């Protein structure tokens, strides 16, 4: 039987399946709270429920919204948009792309019963604000305007709405009440010039990542900067007035853990929620204990972010944001579970879950040179310390010049799949070198059905991936060589597992994916 796998594999592997009825030792949450790419986190609490937004850049749908009851374990509940913008960059048309761009650094707020999630984009040239009264069950409504306000924070006061944003100099502007744009005669000024200089006069990265809060009658502006020869650093400026003057100080320098938000619990505890660069897996969120002393936020324990937290709950890691999928759908189901995101804007005419029920059919739409130019790559996050993704694919519909399979996706990618060349199929492992695809290994393949698997090891930044195939009735066979994964700025995100099918000669070929199964992997020597 095929369709019995949904959700169970991930939850058991990541959270741990326990049937022992004996008393278990007390557990505490650990950092990172999610060993996966969840950067630029912004957060809001509504009652006893927390909602978190993050960056996914060129992936769509985008601006993911996650929910938690304990600040540690998160599940995806919606996306603020299905499509950021419809242009050549986001559509992968006319030689253009938006790798590493799309939308960045969101803000999320809850005001007078309405949730606001916002972002900005050089790809659209706009600032985008999305609203809803129910992030889990009601669609988000878009409001957008020019210009694109870099790394902004929404802030509400006295029935007015402001954006605080910028790089280096931090500026405040008042918005129209209907969110249609910057108010022509409203507040518009720099409130903190060269905000990073409290950390150093010699900065590699000037202040950005603004998040504004009001606490105990004072205004607190959080930013990050990067001193030359140093690390990402958290700086805070405070003032008795929204427009200043502000005084600032460094509040955290530890392993580059920086940029994010602060949040309070219903019990009155405070935490910062920041990310840490961690190689190929991406930028991982950390919870940082926080307290207020003499009117200033104090982050960490003696200036260090602890690995074990004072929160009595076990991490489920990425189980709430990744998912196995048997591609079975019944009435009322989402077409694609929230864990899936497309690389750039998908073309919905070239994929189907109904042409062959129980399978994900992917059809080529055009001729391209390599997988990074391919439309309709369906992706999910990799995660650490180790992770594994497995598919089975049926290839009877391939055309000459087609490639289809499973990819460890970033600029420095590696994939294992089936190639159709001169009427003959072969199993191939390829990787990118100097932005060009290189054939590492191949073997003839006479059948139509084959399973592929990729194991990723991010332990201690090992950042290695191995590739496997399995024919019916046989065991897994390692194939090709080891991909040394590397986080690259052009893609600006952690590695993704991706399902792909692309044509190099003639469009119109198709393949059917039987399932996608994700779980823990193994340490790669």
Automatic annotation (TrEMBL):
Q: Which InterPro entries match?
A: ConA-like_dom_sf, GH43_C2, Glyco_hydro_43, Glyco_hydro_beta-prop_sf, Glycosyl_Hydrlase_43
* Site residues (Important for catalytic activity, responsible for pKa modulation of the active site Glu and correct orientation of both the proton donor and substrate), renumbered to this chain: 151
Ranges where the Beta-xylosidase C-terminal Concanavalin A-like domain occurs: 325-518
Example GO molecular function: hydrolase activity, hydrolyzing O-glycosyl compounds
In the UniProt entry, which residues are flagged as the active site? 40 (proton acceptor), 208 (proton donor)
Q: Which UniProt keywords apply?
A: Glycosidase, Hydrolase
Gene Ontology annotations of biological process type: carbohydrate metabolic process
Q: Which domain of life is it from?
A: Bacteria
Q: Which residues form a coiled coil?
A: none
* Pfam families reported in the protein's UniProt record: GH43_C2 (PF17851), Glyco_hydro_43 (PF04616)
- SUPFAM superfamilies linked to this entry: Arabinanase/levansucrase/invertase (SSF75005), Concanavalin A-like lectins/glucanases (SSF49899)
User: What is the similarity comment for this entry?
Assistant: Belongs to the glycosyl hydrolase 43 family.
Name of the protein described by the UniProt record: Glycoside hydrolase 43 family protein
Q: What is the lineage of its organism?
A: Bacteria, Pseudomonadati, Bacteroidota, Bacteroidia, Marinilabiliales
């Amino acid at each position: 039987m095929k369709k019995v796998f949904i959700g169970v594999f991930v939850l058991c592997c990541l959270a741990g399946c326990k049937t022992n009825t004996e008393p278990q030792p007390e557990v505490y949450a650990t950092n990172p709270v999610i060993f996966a790419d969840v950067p630029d986190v912004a957060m809001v609490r509504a009652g006893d429920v927390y909602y978190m937004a993050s960056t996914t850049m060129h992936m769509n749908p985008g601006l993911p919204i996650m929910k938690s009851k304990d600040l540690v374990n998160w599940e995806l509940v919606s996306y603020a948009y299905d499509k950021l913008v419809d242009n050549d960059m986001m559509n992968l048309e006319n030689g253009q792309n938006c790798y590493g761009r799309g939308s960045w650094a969101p803000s999320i707020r809850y005001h007078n019963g309405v949730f606001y999630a916002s972002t900005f984009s050089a790809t659209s040239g706009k600032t985008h604000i999305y609203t809803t009264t129910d992030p889990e069950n009601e669609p988000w409504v878009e409001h957008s305007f020019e210009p694109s306000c870099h790394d902004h924070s929404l802030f509400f006061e006295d029935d007015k709405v402001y954006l605080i944003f910028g790089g280096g100099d931090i500026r405040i502007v008042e918005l129209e009440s209907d969110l249609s744009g910057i108010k022509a005669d409203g507040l518009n000024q720099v409130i903190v010039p060269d905000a990073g200089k409290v950390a150093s006069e010699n900065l590699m990265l000037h202040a950005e990542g603004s998040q504004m809060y009001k606490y105990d009658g004072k205004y607190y502006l959080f930013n990050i900067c990067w001193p030359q020869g140093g690390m990402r650093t958290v700086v805070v400026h405070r003032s008795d007035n929204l427009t200043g003057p502000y005084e600032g100080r460094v509040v955290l320098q530890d392993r580059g853990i920086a940029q994010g938000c602060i949040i309070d619990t219903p019990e009155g505890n405070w935490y910062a929620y920041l990310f840490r660069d961690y190689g190929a897996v991406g930028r991982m969120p950390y919870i940082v204990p926080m307290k207020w002393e003499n009117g200033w936020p104090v982050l960490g324990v003696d200036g260090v972010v602890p690995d074990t937290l004072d929160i009595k709950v076990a991490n489920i890691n990425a189980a709430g944001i990744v998912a196995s999928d048997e591609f079975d759908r019944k009435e009322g189901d989402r077409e694609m579970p929230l864990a899936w995101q497309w690389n750039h804007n998908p073309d919905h005419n070239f994929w189907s879950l109904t042409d062959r029920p129980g399978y994900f059919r992917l059809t080529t739409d055009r001729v391209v040179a390599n997988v990074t130019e391919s439309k309709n790559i369906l992706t999910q996050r990799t995660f650490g310390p180790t992770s594994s993704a497995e598919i089975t694919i049926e290839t009877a519909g391939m055309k000459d010049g087609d490639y289809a399979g499973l990819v460890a996706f970033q600029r420095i990618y590696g994939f294992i799949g089936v190639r159709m060349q001169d009427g003959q199929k072969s199993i191939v492992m390829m990787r990118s070198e100097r932005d060009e695809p290189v054939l590492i290994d191949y073997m003839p393949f006479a059948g139509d059905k084959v399973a592929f698997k990729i194991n990723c090891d991010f332990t201690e930044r090992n950042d290695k991936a191995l590739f496997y195939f399995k024919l019916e009735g046989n065991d897994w066979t390692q194939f090709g060589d080891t991909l040394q994964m590397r986080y690259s700025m052009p893609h600006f995100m952690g590695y993704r597992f991706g399902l792909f099918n692309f044509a190099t000669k003639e469009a119109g070929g198709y393949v059917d994916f039987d399932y996608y199964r994700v779980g823990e992997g193994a340490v790669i020597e």
